[in-house]
Structure formats: C-alpha cells, structure tokens
User: Fold this.
Amino acid sequence: MTLLTFQKDDQPLTAGRLLPRVGPEPEAPATAATELAHLLFDQEDRDRVHGTWRTLIAGEEFRYRPGLSQEQRIDRSYARLRLLNGALDSPEALAGDPRRLASLHEWTGVVDAALGTVAGIHYNLFLGSLLDHDPQRRRDLSEFTSLQRTGTFLCTELDHGNDVAGLETTAVLDRASGGFVLHTPTSGAQKFMPNTSMIGGPKSAVVAARLLIDGQDQGVCLFLTPLSDEHGPLPGVRIRMLPERTGVPLDHCLTSFDQVRLPREALMEADHGHLDRDGLVTGSLGSRRRRFLRSIGRVTVGKLCLSAKGVGVSRAALAIAVRYAHHRHISGPKAGERVPLAAHRSHHGRLLYALSKAYAMTFLHRTVVSRWAQHTADERAEAERLTAIAKGWITWQARDITLECRERCGAQGLFPANGLADFPLNLESSITAEGDNLVVWVKAASEMVFGHQTTPPGSHHHPGTAEQALDDLGFLRALLADVEGIWQLRARAAVRQAPANSPLNRWNAASAAGLEMVSSHASLNAADAFIAAAARAVDPTAARLLHGLCRLFLLRQLCAHTGDLLAEGALNSLHVRAWSNAMEEAIADLAPHMMTLVDAFDLPGEFLSAIPIASGGYLDRVLED
Assistant:
C-alpha cells in the first residue's frame, strides 16, 4: 500500500487519502487571496487602519540586526518610536482611535515587540490618559507629541499587581501651595516594571497615587509627573533598572518618590472626579473605586492592543512556517523521490488547525474592537468584559500557534534570523500585562455565572438533530453554545451546593466550571465573528475556504466536549463516530490552499524576503550577508 496519492485540482481528498497533491499549489483565482485580505483587514477601512504601519515595517530600519546588546536593542526600539511618530499626522488623533492603536501593535509586534510596548504606553496609557482627563484641551502636550519627552505609566507596585485598588503611593494635598507631595511610603509601594530609565531620553509619567487630604483617603488618582531630564532622574525620583528578563527587551525599572513636590495642575481631573476649590473631591461617580477604575480606563484599550499583537504575530508565524513547509523537501515514499513537508498530513494538519484559529482570532478581534469603539455608556461594562475575555483567549492561542510554527520549522526555527524564535517568549508579557489572563477570566467568570444569559443546552436543536451534518456551521455553532450553557449550569450548581458560610469556598467550588464557561464563551464569540465574515465573502473560492476553515475551527473546539453533548442529546453516536473523519475531510479540502490562506495575511514582501526560510533560503544566506 502506498501512502502517497494525488488528486485532481477540483476534487477534495477522501478520508482514505493521506497526502495532498505535492508540488505547487493549484492556481486559485487572484481574487481569492485579495478577498480574504479585504475581509481580514477591516474592508473599506483597511488603508486608514493598517496602511501606515504596514508601510512602516517594510522599511530597512525594521530588518533583523544580529549582535546587538540588550541596551542597544532597547535604544533601537525608542529610535523606531521616533520614526513611527514622524509618520503620524496627529499623535492626539492616534490616541483617540482604538482601531489604529490596536493595528499599530498588530504590525509592529511582528518586527519589534518592544516598539509596540513603548508606543502603546506613550500613545495610549500616557497621552490617551492626559486627553481623557482634559476634555477642554487646556494642557500643552507639544513636548509629548513631538517626543521631546517620552511618556510612561506608573500604576502597578511591587506589592500590588492585579489588586491595584490597594496601591500605597501617596499624594498629599499641601493646602498652603495648593500642590501635592508625591511619596513612596514603603518598599512594596515602589512602582514595578515601568519603562523609566534614561534610555530613549527624558521621560514623564502618569502616576497612580492615593490622594490624602487632611489625613483622609480620597482614593487613587492620576498625577502628571516629570521623571527625568537630559542629565538624569529629577530630585526625589529614584530609578533602578530591573534584571534582564526573557522575552521583549525593555528598560523595566523600579521607580520610587521621596517627597516630590507637584503643582496643582499635576492632578488629572475629569467629570468622574475633580478637586474643588475647598479641597473636596466631587464628580459624577461617587464611589472612590469606580472613579479610579474610570481614570485608568485606558487599560481596556491596552487589552485590545495586546490582543492585536497576538493576532499579528500568529499570522506572521504561520506565513513563515507555511512557506517553509512548501520550500523544504524531504525523502518521499519511493526511492529517489523528494516531497515537500507540506505533503504530509502530520505536518499540514497542525498548520491548518493553527490557520483556522488565526482567522478566528482576527475576526474576533475586529468584532471586539468595533464593540469597544462604538459602545454606549450602558454597554461599557459588557464591552470591557468581552475585551478582557478576548485578550486572554487570543494571547493564549497565539502562544500555542507560535510554538507550533517554531516546531514545524525544526532547528531552523530556533534562529532569530528566521523570524520565529522570539515570538512565543515575547507573547508571555502580553499574557501577563494589563491584567493577568487567568485573573481577568476569573473576574469575568464571577460576573457571568449568574449575570450572563445563555441558552439552555439542547434548546437550539430540533427533532431532526440526528440528521444534521458535521459540515453545517449553524449546527456546529449551536453545539458550542450548548457547551457554554452546560458549564454555566455546572458552575451555578457548584455555588449552590457549596457551604454557604464561606464565599471563598463557594467560589473555589465553582471556579473550574466558571473558567470553562468563559473559554467556551470566547470560542463562541470567535465562531460568530468567523461565520459573519464568511457570509460577507463575494468571491466563491474565498467563501469556500472560509467555510472550510470555520468548520475545522468549530470541530476542533468541540472535540473535547462531544461526551457532554452526547449526554445532553445534542449529538448522537453516529455524530461522535464520524467526528474524526469530518476533521480529516476538512483538513484534506484545505490542504492544497495553504499558500492562498497565508498570502491573504498581506505581509510586506520586504519583510518576508528578509526571512531566509520564508523565501526559499537558509541561514547560509545570512552568513554571506
């Protein structure tokens, strides 16, 4: 029996055929990749949202350079930040546009993860917070928009990470001057990990500190604080570089304050909270906690940006790995025969599942960004929760995808010059930053166990469920909704059955099921975004590919839950027995079109041509250079 079989270009592989057609991919209509790219990249808004950053990373300044020290790499990221700033019509407009802010991370993360980090901190957390707290635009921002001073954001403390409401840094109102005295009272109150070193030039910060008025705690507020000038840290400001860490190279520091005097205008105020002439804090939000959460609302856009980086590097990793799979040839089943890696199901099957997730991640991200950009005041809490859930799901998926792609390129994938080696480690910071993924999911789960309406399991289905096929996206989507409902019911039951005298024990009993519910909710939202995008496809080839990818995505997402679905009557035994064959058929149908699927990612040719294994070469080309 031979394992290698061929197919006609217009026929899918059957379940018994183990390898796709080898050699060049059958010619797909030129419109297929174009149509896919149009759908992936915001359609008619594509050039405005993505064009600047795509053009930027195509430049020679963004090519890989070996042999740089840690400090040189950090300094290079700040130099690139100035290039980026020079490409802007208006830094203030960028700070107010969540779509472009997210897109910035989506593209720059592919070539310089640290650039995305410092840009996100400067434009979103720093400049965006200043603009949010100055609706009348009374504050002069020119030194920040021109990057004479780089902005940073000091919130997290050594002893206070996810519990930022417990921050200890103080800002005491000095009634005599009307200003404030900023101070770090304990070692645990040192600001942890902000990019505050002298690398990149003078810096100012938005600092979260507890406002004390006549000894009374008024809650945590934000203060604009200069940190350094061209000579070093300003008086009373102590900055110490932290040890080198894995992943994104950045000037992470411990930063503290010793009785630093600030003027009255350093306090950042808005309608939700301001200091009146009598020294009393008033505003539209009476709760100190709600005022603080609103004041740091820019972290939600930060979550969108981190999700975007995960989406961008996942697509780049797949573009590299799929190209390598077609360039790299190995011995075939017949003597003297050579076949590409892409010919083997064990190779292309894993990449295709990763591709299905990357498309789902992209469409989910577009939906979540739009929800946030368009939300009303009444929708804010739900939009924030969906953003947090999506950030966790996307960045976790991105880590899995980039690791898979690195492995599929073997030893070649270990060399940074080939573009893949740094991706997984760089994503670790995204998984932890702007709220640790697990912590934000636990918060979401606690809200959704009783505060989110799901459809009861099985109610999506009609008496003809037994006849529904595993290529029906509507049927598969309904099954995923069932999974979400199943885990919500289990979480509710666990809360009710646990001893009532300990809230922590009650939550511990329900948390595992609650987290499964959140995971299913994320997958369901991704599936909905995917199905909607597929329905918008005009080109028939693009529509067929999107349908096949979405089918594969749903089948794999549901695979671990078929037992529960069988028990609930949503599936029958014939469905379960056919499940693995359905996944094999989905993979076989898609295998000849892998290059079209990654061509749609629209990465600049200059970027791909500089990656040896993405352009048909190996590392000897780098050595010759």
